[in-house]
Amino acid sequence: MSSLDVFQCIEKRRSVRSFRDVPIPEEDLIKILKAGIQAPSAGNIQPWRFIVTTKEDLKMKLAEAALGQYWMVEAGVIITVCAVEDESATYYGTRGRSLYCIQDTAAAVENILLASTALGYGSCWVGAFDEMEVRKTLSIPRDVRPVALIPIGAPAETPEARSRKDLRQVVYHETYGKSRL
């Protein structure tokens, strides 16, 4: 598959919730995971951990934990992105534990989504799940927090682009509320 440039990936990325039964080659999966670890992180701590799930029974349990989002089982893989809060807290205290590790893992999630798109796969950022059930299903220790589930696979759909707010609604000049555009 040919790769897209970053702006094409940003424009083309969609939340895909239907997949074809096509395995993801290991070399593509490695590229996607490597993109995840290239994300920026506070103090370069890299407090993320990735759990790659391909077994049907575990994918089913993750789908159940994700409030019954059973479409996830169709994906070739589900990557669970976790934050090791203590790693960020060691250097940044409470703010590291409650914010920086979440920001860092969110950056890794976006890199994974964009890399998946660049390689022609569909993906979806799933944040709605029962954290304790995901922990139990994947044997995640107490000091590691699951932040996102990312089903990835050969897309069986091409969702239309969803509307976005106009820049004038979200961009300010110098101070909050002062129109930039």
C-alpha Rg (nearest Å): 17 Å
Share in helix? 40-55%
Per CATH, what is the topology? NADH Oxidase
Major sheet details: 4 strands, antiparallel
Beta-strand content bin: 5-15%
What is the CA-CA span between the terminal residues? 39 Å
- What structural class do the secondary elements suggest? alpha+beta
**Poorly predicted segments:** none
Extended strand count: 4
Strand order of the largest sheet: 1-2-4-3
Q: In the CATH hierarchy, what is the architecture at level 2?
A: 3-Layer(aba) Sandwich
- How many helix segments? 6
> What is the N-to-C succession of helices and strands?
HHEHEHEHEH
Instruction: Count the domains.
Output: 1
What number is the mean pLDDT? Answer: 95
CATH homology-level superfamily? NADH Oxidase
Shape: globular
**Text of the CATH class:** Alpha Beta
3D structure, described in words:
By secondary structure, this protein is of the alpha+beta class. It has a single domain (6-158), classed as NADH Oxidase (3-Layer(aba) Sandwich). Helices cover 41% and strands 14% of the residues. The protein has helices at residues 6-12, 26-37, 56-65, 85-118, 131-138, 167-170, and strands at residues 48-53, 77-84, 122-123, 144-153. Helix 1 (6-12) packs across helix 4 (85-118), helix 2 packs across helix 4 (85-118) and helix 3 (56-65) runs antiparallel to helix 5 (131-138). The radius of gyration is 17 Å and the shape is globular.
